[in-house]
Amino acid sequence: MSDQLHLLTHGIPGVIFGVLLAFFLIGTIGSIWGLRRGLEGGERILRVTAMILGLAGIGIAGYVVVTVEIMDQIPQCVGGGGGCAAVEHSKYSRIEGVHVSVLGLIGYLLIFGASIWRGDNARLAAFFLSLFGFGFSLYLTYLELWEILAICQWCVASAIAMTMLFVVNTCRLIVFYGTDDQEGIEPASNGQGARPV
Length: 197
Description:
The chain is mostly helical. The longest helix is centred in the N-terminal third of the chain and has 29 residues, at 42-70. Helix content is 71%, strand content 5%.
């Protein structure tokens, strides 16, 4: 366990730690704010939070895909260190010949799409996609800490973004599943009920 703590404390420089903290705060504040607002715009807040985190994930995974698959290079670790190269050279960087960053990019794009749409189907899709992504991120983090013995900063940033997406989409599903979408409806002034905007 001391080796894993050393990897975490020495493999993540301050700049990356700041980015990870920002992802954590965006997800936490967005979740709490959305839950507190409830039916009066709460789901919109959760969806926007998920879109922001999804865009961050698309950026991270997109960078790694372009660097590895198109430029045929190793992603650079911010602040130096060889963790990204060690992870890239491991047998775990590909699944059946497909780089894990390609799978991550597809996952983030799907979650982003499910965050744009409203309704129960979108809530379910976003939840299950982020649940799978969260589980996959846990698996990859385990491999880095206990099998590869190296930390890729891009992988850790992606794992934190996916974890917060899982939190946000879980809140969205639990609180808003089965509720009517309140966005885009305003009360009618003539007493005949609500009408679409």
